[in-house]
Each structure stands twice: as C-alpha cells, then as structure tokens.
Amino acid sequence: MTKEKLHKEPKTKEKDQTPIIEIKDLHKTFGKDNKVLQGVNLTLNKGEDLVVLGRSGSGKSVTIKCIVGLIEPDKGEIKVFDENVLHIPKNELNAIRVRIGFLFQSGALYDSMSVRENLAFTLTKHQRDLSAEEIESQVMEALESVGLGDAVDKMPSELSGGMKKRIGLARTLILKPEIILYDEPTTGLDTITSREISELILDIKHKQKTSSIIITHDMACAKLTADRIIVLKDGVIHAEGTYEELEKDEDEWVRSFFE
C-alpha cells in the first residue's frame, strides 16, 4: 500500500505483534548533499520476515548498517530489544550486536581460513571458555543447518557463490542470533540457487524463531520470504503491505517492482 493507505489493516493484526526493532525519523547524508535517508520509520516485529525494496541508492543497506552501528546516522532513533542503540555505552551495544546476525552480500569469509576456522573464529571471539570439542560440535551444527557439513575443511576459494552464501549464513547462525539482517542474500546467484537460499531463510525462521530484515532486488525471494514488504523511495518509506497487496497497488511506481 502506498503511503496514503498505510492505515489499512496489515496481514497480521498489529495488536498481536511485538516490536523487536523500531526506527524513527532516521536521517543520513553522505558528503554535502547526498541525502540517502530522509526520515525513515520502520518496525520489525518479533518472528517476522520484513523485506525492504528500493532502487539502488535508496538507502536499504544504509538502514540496516545503522542498526548494528556500521554507519552512524545524522538524526533519529533506533531501538533494538527496547534499547536505543544510538545512546548506550559501547559494552552494552556489543552485547546487543551479538544477538544480531548480519549476512553481507559477499558472505565476507576470511580467504586465508578454512570453513572450520572461519566459523570457529567467530564463535571463540564471543565465547572464549569453550573446549575444542564444544567448538567442533557447534561448528558442525551450524554447517549442517545450511546443508554443508561436508565443506568443513574447504577453503573459500574452493566454494561456489551459493556455497559462500550458505557458509556466511552458518557463521552468522553459530552465535544463535535472535535477529538476522540479510543484505542482498541472493545477489549474483542463479535462479535455482537463489530459491534454495530463500527457502533456507524460511527454514531458519521456523526452526530458530528468528526475526529478519531482508534487503533484496530479487522479487522471487521477496515473494517467498516476506511476511511484509516496505518500499523505500527518496529516503523515506513510500509503500508498505504484503506481496499480494503491493503487486496490485494503485501506484504505478510501486507496481513496477512486480512486473
């Protein structure tokens, strides 16, 4: 639904939902006049997969990077687990970050480390008192959750694009996050592999009870994963609704995403 029609009742009644992320009046300008975010208001509800659409440069990735502190906004409020993450001590922010998984477009694996070492490094960085047996068990559990237990001794250079995405996701899952932020999870993948990643996102949501924001240009991914979709335009939320609602929206610009 376009901005003028946001009062309509969403797919799931708001009274049954608990906000886990709340963003209010978020602004971010790069340089002198590149105004990327101009007052974004966004809520992610517990147990929800929220898809964010928008043209390149519309501020999709900037928004989720602000949530975890990778980018500092110029103005606004970001509450995660009911804490304003822009105004808390660094140690408290780090404690919240551990509860948030971030899947980068590239998978962001360390090229000089094996798959096992990539996952173990992330795990031991946050849980330093684990035994070797506990580390191995959790590494294998995370890999098996993405269907790649047999890739544990491979190097990133030996992996396909789809495998790198899965390993990156396994590395995110090893800390058992409550929220996962997906930045273009299917970019650069063929149609079949993209669908497999989308199905994996759904599987993780149901098995691990995660809440997620999914940044994507892939409408097949959006259709499969989204409980709700928001569309960014000119630095603000221009439309919001289910896939089916937005596909039939009166706004021609919104409908153009679905053609």
Describe the protein.
The chain is an alpha/beta fold and 259 residues long. The protein has one domain: P-loop containing nucleotide triphosphate hydrolases (Rossmann fold), CATH 3.40.50.300. It has nine helices and ten strands. The strands form two sheets. A six-stranded mixed beta sheet has the order 6-7-8-3-9-10, with helices on both faces. The chain has a four-stranded antiparallel beta sheet with strand order 2-1-4-5, covered by helices on one side. It is globular. It starts with 18 loop residues before the first strand and ends with a helix. Keywords: ATP-binding, Nucleotide-binding, Transport. This is ABC transporter ATP-binding protein. Pfam families: ABC_tran. One of its GO terms (molecular function) is ATP hydrolysis activity.
Summarize the structure.
The protein is of the alpha/beta class and 259 residues long.
- Determine the number of helices (DSSP H or I, runs of at least 4 residues): 9
The poorly predicted ranges are: 3-16
State the CATH class: Alpha Beta
What is the CATH homology-level superfamily?
A: P-loop containing nucleotide triphosphate hydrolases
**Oligomeric state of the chains in view:** single chain
| Category from helices, strands and their pairing | alpha/beta
Radius of gyration: 18 Å
For the secondary structure, the number of strands is: 10
| Mean residue pLDDT | 89
**Pattern of helices and strands:** EEEHEEHEHHHEHEHEEHH
Which second-level CATH architecture applies? 3-Layer(aba) Sandwich
Terminal-residue CA separation: 16 Å
Total domain count = 1
Helix content bin: 25-40%
The name of the CATH topology is Rossmann fold
- Give the amount of beta strand, in percent: 15-25%
Q: What is the strand arrangement across the widest sheet?
A: 6-7-8-3-9-10
| 3D shape | globular
Main pleated-sheet profile: 6 strands, mixed
